[in-house]
Amino acid sequence: MSAIEVKNLHKAFGDLKAVDGVSFDVQQGEIFSLLGPNGAGKTTTISMLSCLLRPDQGDALVMGHSIKADQMGVKSVLGVVPQEIALYNDLSARENLTFWGKMYGLRGAPLKQRVDEVLEIIGLTERAKDRVGKYSGGMKRRVNIGVALLHKPQVIYMDEPTVGIDPQSRRNILDSVVALKNQGMTVLYTTHYMEEAQELSDHIAIMDTGKVIAYGTNAELVKIVGQMDRITLTVSTDGGRVAEAWKVVKGVKQVKAEDGTLVVLAEDSNQVLPRLFEAASTQGTRITSVTIQEPNLEAVFLHLTGKALRD
Amino acid sequence: MILSSGNFAVTSGFSQGDTDPRLPVAVINQDGGDPSTSSGLRLSLRLVSLLENSEVIAVSQDEEQTLADYEKSLAKGDLAGILTIPAGYTETLLTGNLPPLILEADTAQTAGTTVQGEILAAATRLVSAVQTALIVGETSSAFTPAFEQALAAWEEPPIRIETASAALVETEEQPSTQVASLGHTAPGMMLQFGIASLLTSATVVVNERKTRSLQRLLTTATRRPHILLGHFLAIFVLLFAQFLVLMVFGQLILKVDYLRVPGASLLVALASSLCIAALGLLIGVLAKSEEQAIAFSLIPMFIFSGLGGAWVPLEFTGATFQAIGHITPIAWAMDGFKNITVRLLGLESVLLPSAALAGYALLFFLLAVWRFRRVSE
Q1: Min CA distance, A95 vs chain B (Å)?
Q2: Does residue A54 register a pLDDT over 60?
Q3: By Cβ atoms counted within 10 A, which residue in A53, A56, A129, A134 is the most buried?
Q4: Is the Cβ pair A103, B219 closer than 8 Å?
């Protein structure tokens, strides 16, 4: 059963089409990632799904509630972890959680109990009385996530929750996302880190310039580039002549000359690479650099858009 | 009379005893009297006597003190002046002329000019008496009684002009002019303080938007008007508390009688707080940055305070200015408070101003809700 059904969402800011006909389904209890570079439209999409922005066109159902017709219904099943640290720095972690818990409708003993539980989940029980302003970036991120868990939402949106934090805190957050899934929550996760999407997601939608350009599981998406290694080489002579020679090398599936470099798609780079060196030598050409990229989402994005995810 | 001014600064706190409030003046009498008279008439002594009876000057004569000693005292501020009656004073006076006196005092100071005036008055009185006696008593034996009589006549002049300052007739219900003045100023300052808190209230909303806390609030199952209402109530409570503190201060320290009709004072303070809080909320919703919030707050702060009579009473302005002033909520708040503290009216007199303020509050709040809905979508 779908937890989130997104149907042809559109949102423009003036002439800029931030989201241009986005559709996807998120199944209950899965982690679904929206992967794309900055400016791809991920945050705008999540803002519409949070009822912060009204779509120009299209609709979405969150646990059966329309983001257009039943905003309060959507909000009642939803927890949002914004990209920014949306907390009150002058309050302690406990005070922040208590305040936000009240905003989510909790009161009295259940609120106090839930705040204690969330402090335990985010590992900040010992520092609960310290002002959030004094916390490290990673600790603030954990409180930021904790706020969204207070009312035990069925669906949780996490908008680039690992931006700007140290590797250890990042690891903690990724582990906590998996823990949320294990508790039965549906997680919609946006990121521009390919590794995060690969590690966490059951399904991934790759976005660019406001559109979903690919959608599927990690394995399905990688198949787009045919499970082939991508070898990028620079050579000392005319690339076009070398490319023609390499096309007939055994194991090479495709050769493209791009911006002074040669991109070779091959089934096994370990076997093909010595042959490429040999062929280049025959042509009187010297290979000056080699980069090997195994099939992954980065390669998929590169294959689909011709640019890197972090461009 | 020769005045030496500006050499010494006579300030205040002359040490002429703790109980004598008069200005201490040292007198050096070099007058030897009139050698031609058998009695050795010394009119300088009469001058000193006149000065001793003065209500303004306290004469100080010490044979052991020199002019230099007195000048040191003058420099220290222990004296308000040094009067030297030169030799030949009596002889010159007996010719019917005003003989020169030497006064050292700082005429740039009030004390110096006061001493100068008092000595001049005494000297003039003396010369007038001498002139009178010279006319009446042509012989030396007749001079003295005539002189004494003329001098005594100054003590009881046939015509006396009494002056008195006009003052308000005070009744139990009417405040003194000072209190009446504060009755305007204190509410004006109080409203000025109140409207100055627009800066804080507006930046609260802007900062929440900057930290994205406001957007996060919008993802909770709380309606937009309720979120704004929460902000509004927080600002209102702070403002109302500020009004209460300032009213207590005004009542206890400035003696502005807000408690004369406590219900009325509270009503105006309540309505003013509602109005300013709603305006602060509107500015917070309109402003896109902290700088804009500050700028948007300063504009109504100055315009409303200036036009509304918080700085200058609208009663001092023309009918047109008053009408324009009443476009601003501050004018209504001033009316409300002044009806209590200056015009000494009752609760019913603040109902209209309070209703006007509540109307402004509702208008500002609705505009804030409308704008908030637009900007957040």
Answers
A1: 14
A2: yes
A3: A53
A4: no
